[in-house]
Amino acid sequence: MIKIKGVEAVVEGFEKLAEEAAAQTDEFLGRLAESIAEKARQNAPFKTGRLRRSIENRKTAFLQYVVEATAPYAGYVEYGTSKTPPRRFMQNAVQQTIEKPP
Predict the structure, then answer these.
(1) Where does 1-102 have alpha helices with state H?
(2) Burial class (CB within 10 angstroms; exposed 0-12, middle 13-18, buried 19+) of 93
(3) Is the per-residue pLDDT at 5 higher than 80?
(4) CA 91 to CA 60: how far, in whole Å?
């Protein structure tokens, strides 16, 4: 008969490492979301400030964050209309954050 001692301790150690990695990943995603929101505020065109003030980020679940602009016209600014070109303040914020993460 072969007995292997310490397997339970190894499994527990891996479980702890996995939990720590997940927690660190969640924290990093939160920093990414805040960075994207901040860059989007900087990129957003400014007339009254409403669009910039409407940009927010929030955690929706573990490992899930949302960055959004809630001004009713935000989509028209981001994607443009038949009369105005797109002003990609959100897309550019994501790209800037990917290129230089926090």
Answers:
(1) 7-43, 50-54, 74-79, 89-99
(2) buried
(3) no
(4) 20
What three-state secondary structure class fits 48?
coil
Span between the terminal Cα atoms of the chain, in Å: 54
Q: What stretch of H or E contains 87?
A: none
Identity of residue 46 = F
- Domain-embedded: residue 2: no
Return the pLDDT at 56: 97
- Would you say residue 1 lies in a domain? no
Main-chain phi, psi angles of 79, to 5 degrees: -100, -10
The domain tally of the chain equals 1
* pLDDT confidence of residue 6: 72
Domain boundaries, position 43:
7-99
